[in-house]
Amino acid sequence: MSGLVRKSFDSPEETRPFEDGKGKIDLVDLAGGAVGRGVFEPGWKWSDHVKPIAKTDSCQAAHVGYCVSGRMVVVMDDGEQQEFGPGDVMIAPPGHDAWVVGDEACVLVDWQGFADYAKR
Fold it and tell me: Kind of pairing, strands 23-30 and 14-17?
């Protein structure tokens, strides 16, 4: 039997919308865990659009992801800050806020942090 698996974000197993329609997470399930594609619309900010869902002071998910398009700033609770854009690979430990920069949606693919992200 083949070990090939094919999934598509065009038909995810689950979609989780953010507050105020500012984006969503699409999840596909793999044997090693969920992989997510986040679409973060212009004006999206974690502390405004996910914090009410997560009910934590900052994002407590650890992210390992790839930025497909758009730009996002991530600022850690200790003040360390980085901006990510197309082609960037991101590692963001728990304890951060984030927001979209500019007028283009930021699309991120995340292999670690979206399994419980924005889960109601």
Answer: antiparallel
What is the C-alpha to C-alpha distance for residues 6 and 28, in angstroms, rounded to an integer?
A: 10
Q: CA torsion sign, 58 to 60 to 64 to 70?
A: negative
Main-chain phi, psi angles of 64, to 5 degrees = -130, 110
- How many other C-beta atoms are found inside a 10 Å radius of the C-beta of residue 56? 12
Q: How far is CA 67 from CA 38, 48, 54, 93, 98, in A?
A: 10, 21, 23, 16, 14
- The structural domains of the chain, with segments of one domain joined by +, span 16-110
Q: What is the pLDDT of residues 62-105, one digit of tens each?
A: 999 999 999 999 999 999 999 999 999 999 999 999 999 999 99
Domain at 16-110, CATH homologous superfamily: Jelly Rolls (2.60.120.10)
